[in-house]
Amino acid sequence: MDETHARKTSLRDAVLIACCQNDPGYRKLLVDPDDPCPRWFATTHSIAGRLAVLGSGIPGLSGIIFAAWQRKVPGGLLHFLARKRFVEDEVREAIQGGFRQIVLFGSGYDSLGLRLAKEFQHIHVFEVDHPPTQAVKLLALEKNRLRPANLHFLSVDLRKGTLERHLLQEHGYDTHLHVLFVAERVLPYLPEQEVDEIFNFTYEHGITNSRFIFTVVDKTLLKDPNSFLHRESKKAEKQGRPIRSSLPIEDLEKFLFQ
């Protein structure tokens, strides 16, 4: 994986959202279908991003993109949108229930943290992410003069064991408050040691009744040569995005207990 440039997967996700915003059906699954951030982030990322965003607005082109995505990953787009909607609904429910601190790991070009910080000014949102990717995001927000004071960016390489030092030193983070941690689609790309570090951090610095929303790759399917997940993981590995950690779903409760 190239750690010196913003991640192409973040660009792909932003372009997919931009395309969905222009589709009468898919936009119904978005919390804010008129959110300009996906286009901001994609156009700031690269020339390819600018061209992709322009293309997303051309009638019929989004349909071609969706069809290609469906052929490559059957059901993948709906899964992508449903997962994001589920995570956002859970985060909003936690805020309504009194949570005042949200920590987002590896959010890429997702605009969830920004939208939450704007809407709920009494909370603090911390985005912990890959430095080059986060630099693009910050540049896009600066260009558009939009950066709420309660939105904090921590450029941290999660694979270098610096999470605790960065987050605990960040102004606004309170170890005495409940915290909602979110790691959507980031843990599988981290070595197991770094995954353990994140879970240990949430355990040690998230007081009782704090929460953690995360996604995990099923190791059983990953190792099954006949599974779609196995085939796609091999393609991702060739592209420099290997799956570094996974877990049999039946062992999940045991893992969390440990």
Provide an overview of this structure:
This protein has helices at 8-21, 37-45, 47-56, 61-72, 76-96, 112-119, 131-143, 163-169, 192-205, 219-223, 228-238, 252-257; strands at residues 101-105, 124-129, 151-155, 180-183, 211-214. The mean pLDDT is 89. With 258 residues, it is an alpha/beta fold. The chain starts with 7 loop residues before the first helix and ends with a helix. It has a five-stranded parallel beta sheet with strand order 3-2-1-4-5, sandwiched between helices.
Helix content: 40-55%
- Strand proportion, as a percent range, falls in 5-15%
What is the CA-atom radius of gyration, in angstroms? 18 Å
- Biggest sheet features: 5 strands, parallel
In DSSP terms, counting alpha (H) and pi (I) runs of 4 or more, how many helices? 12
Terminal-residue CA separation: 30 Å
Low-confidence stretches: none
- How many β-strand runs? 5
Q: Could you state the order of secondary-structure elements as H and E?
A: HHHHHEHEHEHEHEHHH
Tell the overall outline.
globular
Task: Tell me, rounded to a whole number, the average pLDDT.
Answer: 89
Q: What is the SS-derived class? A: alpha/beta
Strand order in the largest sheet = 3-2-1-4-5
In short:
This protein starts with 7 loop residues before the first helix and ends with a helix. It is built from twelve helices and five strands. Helix 6 links the parallel strand 1 and strand 2.
